[in-house]
């Protein structure tokens, strides 16, 4: 599958100038403020000093040369993209004609900046030109590859009451502006897209969850989760906690105990509940469990389960 003209949005300007295909490379970002007279807008600080702010939502990304009066004016087919910030995760969609390249990873927040750490997974989705000849063939072709992770640092700013992220590398500055109009519908379309599903499957390859045996670990109160109520009845649990500080998982065949009161445990667990119901002294739950590794890979799994005291 061909590479996109613009592999990542911070290479957009160079790609549009020379019209050549970029080789994949490890990105080393430098963070320095550009002179005020080279910026196309007046920027207002959006975050108070010494206060960390978690940002979420959809951002349109592109070169500073396509940005004026707090708006993007894209003049080429490979100049734009979408950036989704979702809790501790990000997804970066780059577009070129009808093709999409998706990368992603984890976010680190600071007082006046955020840093994106990719996990090296690249998913390319391109139009299958043979589809025009034979409509029984897949309309799009998807390829997943691994490359050196990249790191991008953004300064948190605002422009006309919209969130603005300013990223700088050498002489070229890229902006990511908050998308306000129809953002929920656009985010939903991107999160349910086939290219993102392929990206998540590629994450699953890096580590897998197995069954745990927590009966001798949870002595008083705790929660047990399984993939379905049938597996729950069969005691095929993949997650447990003790209502205190310990979480139990089986990762790549190894039983692990994670103390979530401490940092640098190798993995981070996030629970996203969908439904909770009290039945007597038992709390029944359903939702999604996300397990993130320190090397920026993650896996998401639907769960059902119960929390109670023995």
Core attributes:
310 residues; mainly beta; Lipocalin; 8-stranded antiparallel beta barrel; 4 helices; globular; disordered N terminus
Task: Describe the protein.
There is one protein chain. The protein has 310 residues and is mainly β. The chain has two domains: 9-205, Lipocalin (Beta Barrel), CATH 2.40.128; 221-309, no CATH class. It has helices at residues 12-18, 183-191, 194-206, 229-233, and strands at residues 44-45, 57-63, 67-68, 71-72, 81-86, 89-96, 99-109, 113-118, 121-127, 140-146, 151-159, 162-169, 172-178, 221-226, 239-241, 246-251, 254-259, 267-279, 282-293, 298-309. An eight-stranded antiparallel barrel has the order 2-5-6-7-8-11-12-13. The chain has a seven-stranded antiparallel beta sheet with strand order 17-16-15-14-20-19-18.
List the helices and strands and how they pair.
Layout: H1 12-18, E1 44-45, E2 57-63, E3 67-68, E4 71-72, E5 81-86, E6 89-96, E7 99-109, E8 113-118, E9 121-127, E10 140-146, E11 151-159, E12 162-169, E13 172-178, H2 183-191, H3 194-206, E14 221-226, H4 229-233, E15 239-241, E16 246-251, E17 254-259, E18 267-279, E19 282-293, E20 298-309
